[in-house]
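With this grant's support, we have settled on a layout for protein records. An illustrative entry appears below exactly as we store it:
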Amino acid sequence: MKKCYSPPSSNNQDPYRLPLFSKCKPLITSIDPLTCQELAALIRPTMTIDFEREIYAIIPFLSEELTYSLIIYHDYCSLLPQPPFPIIKQILLHYHFYDYGIFKDTLYHLFSQSNIKRQYKLPCATSEYSLLPLTNATKKDTIWVNPGKIMALTSAGPQLFIELQNQLSIPCSVESRRLKQTMLISFLAHGVLKREHSYQLIRPNTSLTEFLELSYSPITNHLLENFCFHDLPGKRGSFSLIYQDLYAEVSQQRMRQK
Protein backbone atom coordinates (compact mmCIF):
# COMPACT_ATOMS: atom_id res chain seq x y z
CA MET A 1 0.00 0.00 0.00
CA LYS A 2 1.30 3.42 -0.91
CA LYS A 3 2.20 5.43 2.15
CA CYS A 4 0.41 8.78 2.49
CA TYR A 5 1.84 9.69 5.90
CA SER A 6 5.42 10.18 6.95
CA PRO A 7 5.77 10.88 10.68
CA PRO A 8 8.30 13.48 11.83
CA SER A 9 11.49 11.99 13.18
CA SER A 10 11.87 12.54 16.91
CA ASN A 11 13.50 10.54 19.64
CA ASN A 12 10.97 11.92 22.12
CA GLN A 13 7.85 11.07 20.16
CA ASP A 14 5.03 9.74 22.34
CA PRO A 15 4.23 6.19 21.09
CA TYR A 16 0.54 6.73 21.97
CA ARG A 17 0.18 10.03 20.09
CA LEU A 18 0.72 10.39 16.36
CA PRO A 19 1.40 13.99 15.21
CA LEU A 20 -0.73 15.38 12.41
CA PHE A 21 1.55 18.34 11.73
CA SER A 22 5.25 18.91 11.14
CA LYS A 23 6.63 22.46 11.21
CA CYS A 24 3.03 23.75 11.05
CA LYS A 25 2.33 21.79 7.85
CA PRO A 26 -0.29 19.00 7.80
CA LEU A 27 1.15 15.52 7.36
CA ILE A 28 -2.16 14.19 6.11
CA THR A 29 -5.18 15.93 4.57
CA SER A 30 -7.82 13.24 4.16
CA ILE A 31 -8.75 10.24 6.23
CA ASP A 32 -10.70 7.09 5.31
CA PRO A 33 -10.65 3.44 6.52
CA LEU A 34 -7.48 2.63 4.55
CA THR A 35 -5.72 5.69 5.91
CA CYS A 36 -6.83 4.74 9.43
CA GLN A 37 -5.21 1.32 9.05
CA GLU A 38 -2.00 2.93 7.88
CA LEU A 39 -1.94 5.36 10.80
CA ALA A 40 -2.78 2.58 13.25
CA ALA A 41 0.37 0.72 12.22
CA LEU A 42 2.42 3.69 13.46
CA ILE A 43 0.89 4.10 16.90
CA ARG A 44 0.35 2.00 20.02
CA PRO A 45 -3.24 1.44 21.17
CA THR A 46 -4.27 3.07 24.43
CA MET A 47 -7.35 2.96 26.66
CA THR A 48 -6.83 6.58 27.71
CA ILE A 49 -8.90 9.46 26.37
CA ASP A 50 -7.26 12.88 26.61
CA PHE A 51 -10.01 14.81 28.39
CA GLU A 52 -7.80 17.90 28.53
CA ARG A 53 -8.09 18.32 24.76
CA GLU A 54 -11.15 18.86 22.62
CA ILE A 55 -11.94 15.93 20.32
CA TYR A 56 -12.38 16.81 16.64
CA ALA A 57 -13.62 13.41 15.44
CA ILE A 58 -13.80 9.72 16.29
CA ILE A 59 -13.30 7.49 13.26
CA PRO A 60 -13.83 3.71 13.48
CA PHE A 61 -12.23 1.10 11.24
CA LEU A 62 -11.78 -2.67 11.10
CA SER A 63 -8.43 -4.38 11.58
CA GLU A 64 -8.15 -8.16 11.86
CA GLU A 65 -11.92 -8.37 12.49
CA LEU A 66 -11.70 -5.98 15.46
CA THR A 67 -13.13 -2.46 15.53
CA TYR A 68 -10.71 0.30 16.49
CA SER A 69 -11.29 4.03 16.86
CA LEU A 70 -8.94 6.76 15.75
CA ILE A 71 -9.51 9.83 17.92
CA ILE A 72 -8.59 13.04 16.14
CA TYR A 73 -7.48 16.01 18.24
CA HIS A 74 -6.22 19.35 16.89
CA ASP A 75 -2.65 18.31 16.13
CA TYR A 76 -2.40 14.60 16.87
CA CYS A 77 -4.43 11.38 16.94
CA SER A 78 -4.61 8.39 19.26
CA LEU A 79 -5.82 4.82 18.79
CA LEU A 80 -8.32 3.06 21.05
CA PRO A 81 -9.07 -0.67 20.65
CA GLN A 82 -12.85 -0.26 20.82
CA PRO A 83 -15.75 1.15 18.76
CA PRO A 84 -16.80 4.79 19.17
CA PHE A 85 -19.97 4.21 21.22
CA PRO A 86 -18.19 3.05 24.42
CA ILE A 87 -15.93 6.10 24.06
CA ILE A 88 -18.99 8.36 23.81
CA LYS A 89 -20.38 6.85 27.02
CA GLN A 90 -17.04 7.45 28.76
CA ILE A 91 -17.10 11.11 27.71
CA LEU A 92 -20.56 11.67 29.23
CA LEU A 93 -19.54 9.90 32.44
CA HIS A 94 -16.31 11.85 32.74
CA TYR A 95 -17.78 15.33 32.33
CA HIS A 96 -21.15 15.02 34.04
CA PHE A 97 -21.65 11.42 35.31
CA TYR A 98 -24.47 10.98 32.79
CA ASP A 99 -25.85 7.64 31.69
CA TYR A 100 -26.11 7.75 27.89
CA GLY A 101 -29.62 6.26 27.67
CA ILE A 102 -31.07 8.65 30.25
CA PHE A 103 -29.12 11.56 28.76
CA LYS A 104 -30.63 10.84 25.33
CA ASP A 105 -34.18 10.57 26.71
CA THR A 106 -33.68 13.82 28.63
CA LEU A 107 -32.74 15.64 25.42
CA TYR A 108 -35.81 14.13 23.69
CA HIS A 109 -38.07 15.44 26.46
CA LEU A 110 -36.48 18.87 26.61
CA PHE A 111 -36.56 19.36 22.85
CA SER A 112 -40.16 18.14 22.57
CA GLN A 113 -41.22 20.68 25.21
CA SER A 114 -39.74 23.37 22.95
CA ASN A 115 -41.55 21.99 19.88
CA ILE A 116 -38.32 20.79 18.29
CA LYS A 117 -39.04 17.89 15.97
CA ARG A 118 -37.93 14.51 17.36
CA GLN A 119 -34.45 13.78 16.10
CA TYR A 120 -33.16 10.42 14.86
CA LYS A 121 -29.54 11.33 15.58
CA LEU A 122 -28.87 13.01 18.90
CA PRO A 123 -25.40 14.24 19.84
CA CYS A 124 -23.16 13.51 22.76
CA ALA A 125 -23.09 16.95 24.39
CA THR A 126 -21.15 18.29 27.35
CA SER A 127 -20.56 21.75 28.74
CA GLU A 128 -17.30 21.83 26.74
CA TYR A 129 -18.28 20.63 23.28
CA SER A 130 -20.50 18.19 21.40
CA LEU A 131 -20.00 15.25 19.04
CA LEU A 132 -22.60 14.27 16.45
CA PRO A 133 -23.05 10.79 14.94
CA LEU A 134 -23.14 10.60 11.15
CA THR A 135 -25.33 7.48 11.32
CA ASN A 136 -26.85 5.34 14.10
CA ALA A 137 -25.15 6.21 17.40
CA THR A 138 -24.73 2.62 18.59
CA LYS A 139 -23.36 1.15 15.34
CA LYS A 140 -19.71 0.14 15.39
CA ASP A 141 -18.89 1.90 12.12
CA THR A 142 -20.46 5.27 12.99
CA ILE A 143 -18.18 8.30 12.68
CA TRP A 144 -18.59 11.04 15.31
CA VAL A 145 -17.64 14.63 14.47
CA ASN A 146 -17.35 17.81 16.55
CA PRO A 147 -19.65 20.30 14.76
CA GLY A 148 -17.80 23.22 16.29
CA LYS A 149 -14.67 22.15 14.42
CA ILE A 150 -16.28 21.86 10.97
CA MET A 151 -14.91 24.55 8.67
CA ALA A 152 -16.85 23.64 5.51
CA LEU A 153 -18.73 20.96 3.60
CA THR A 154 -17.32 20.30 0.14
CA SER A 155 -18.21 17.93 -2.68
CA ALA A 156 -16.18 15.94 -5.16
CA GLY A 157 -18.77 14.54 -7.52
CA PRO A 158 -21.39 12.71 -5.43
CA GLN A 159 -19.04 12.42 -2.43
CA LEU A 160 -19.47 14.92 0.42
CA PHE A 161 -16.44 15.79 2.56
CA ILE A 162 -16.35 17.34 6.02
CA GLU A 163 -13.48 19.82 6.22
CA LEU A 164 -12.24 20.24 9.78
CA GLN A 165 -10.49 23.30 11.16
CA ASN A 166 -7.20 21.39 11.45
CA GLN A 167 -7.25 20.94 7.63
CA LEU A 168 -8.29 17.29 7.82
CA SER A 169 -11.17 16.10 5.63
CA ILE A 170 -13.49 13.16 6.28
CA PRO A 171 -15.72 11.52 3.65
CA CYS A 172 -19.38 11.66 4.67
CA SER A 173 -22.29 9.53 3.46
CA VAL A 174 -24.94 11.90 4.85
CA GLU A 175 -26.43 14.55 2.56
CA SER A 176 -25.48 18.14 3.30
CA ARG A 177 -28.97 19.30 4.36
CA ARG A 178 -29.39 16.57 6.95
CA LEU A 179 -25.89 17.07 8.29
CA LYS A 180 -26.52 20.79 8.80
CA GLN A 181 -29.73 19.98 10.66
CA THR A 182 -27.84 17.59 12.97
CA MET A 183 -25.15 20.25 13.49
CA LEU A 184 -27.79 22.75 14.64
CA ILE A 185 -29.29 20.25 17.09
CA SER A 186 -25.78 19.54 18.41
CA PHE A 187 -25.10 23.23 19.00
CA LEU A 188 -28.40 23.58 20.88
CA ALA A 189 -27.59 20.54 23.02
CA HIS A 190 -24.11 21.92 23.73
CA GLY A 191 -25.72 25.22 24.74
CA VAL A 192 -28.18 23.49 27.06
CA LEU A 193 -25.39 21.60 28.84
CA LYS A 194 -23.12 24.65 29.08
CA ARG A 195 -25.99 26.71 30.52
CA GLU A 196 -26.78 23.89 32.95
CA HIS A 197 -23.25 23.69 34.33
CA SER A 198 -22.32 27.37 34.23
CA TYR A 199 -22.88 30.00 36.88
CA GLN A 200 -22.29 32.92 34.54
CA LEU A 201 -24.99 35.53 34.08
CA ILE A 202 -25.52 35.63 30.32
CA ARG A 203 -27.38 38.37 28.51
CA PRO A 204 -30.43 36.87 26.73
CA ASN A 205 -29.39 38.44 23.42
CA THR A 206 -25.85 37.02 23.53
CA SER A 207 -25.24 35.20 20.25
CA LEU A 208 -25.08 31.43 20.56
CA THR A 209 -21.75 31.46 18.70
CA GLU A 210 -20.30 33.75 21.36
CA PHE A 211 -21.83 31.81 24.27
CA LEU A 212 -20.40 28.52 23.00
CA GLU A 213 -17.04 30.21 22.29
CA LEU A 214 -16.92 28.67 18.82
CA SER A 215 -14.02 29.34 16.48
CA TYR A 216 -14.86 31.17 13.27
CA SER A 217 -16.35 28.97 10.58
CA PRO A 218 -18.50 30.10 7.64
CA ILE A 219 -20.89 27.18 8.02
CA THR A 220 -21.25 27.63 11.80
CA ASN A 221 -21.82 31.37 11.49
CA HIS A 222 -24.47 30.74 8.83
CA LEU A 223 -26.30 28.11 10.90
CA LEU A 224 -26.29 30.16 14.11
CA GLU A 225 -26.58 33.70 12.75
CA ASN A 226 -30.14 34.10 14.09
CA PHE A 227 -29.71 32.15 17.35
CA CYS A 228 -29.13 33.76 20.74
CA PHE A 229 -28.82 32.48 24.29
CA HIS A 230 -32.56 32.89 24.91
CA ASP A 231 -33.31 30.52 21.98
CA LEU A 232 -31.94 27.52 23.89
CA PRO A 233 -34.65 24.97 24.80
CA GLY A 234 -35.91 25.20 28.38
CA LYS A 235 -34.11 27.20 31.03
CA ARG A 236 -31.23 26.69 33.45
CA GLY A 237 -32.08 23.70 35.64
CA SER A 238 -34.59 22.17 33.20
CA PHE A 239 -32.20 19.48 31.97
CA SER A 240 -31.23 18.37 35.48
CA LEU A 241 -34.83 18.15 36.66
CA ILE A 242 -35.87 15.99 33.71
CA TYR A 243 -32.74 13.83 34.02
CA GLN A 244 -33.36 13.25 37.75
CA ASP A 245 -36.98 12.25 37.14
CA LEU A 246 -36.02 9.81 34.39
CA TYR A 247 -33.15 8.44 36.47
CA ALA A 248 -35.59 7.76 39.34
CA GLU A 249 -37.97 5.96 36.97
CA VAL A 250 -35.18 3.77 35.56
CA SER A 251 -33.92 2.97 39.08
CA GLN A 252 -37.41 1.91 40.20
CA GLN A 253 -37.83 -0.30 37.14
CA ARG A 254 -34.52 -2.00 37.84
CA MET A 255 -35.51 -2.57 41.46
CA ARG A 256 -38.79 -4.19 40.40
CA GLN A 257 -36.95 -6.49 37.99
CA LYS A 258 -34.74 -7.91 40.79
Observations:
- The radius of gyration is 19 Å.
- The first strand starts at residue 18 and ends at 19.
- DSSP finds seven helices and twelve strands in the chain.
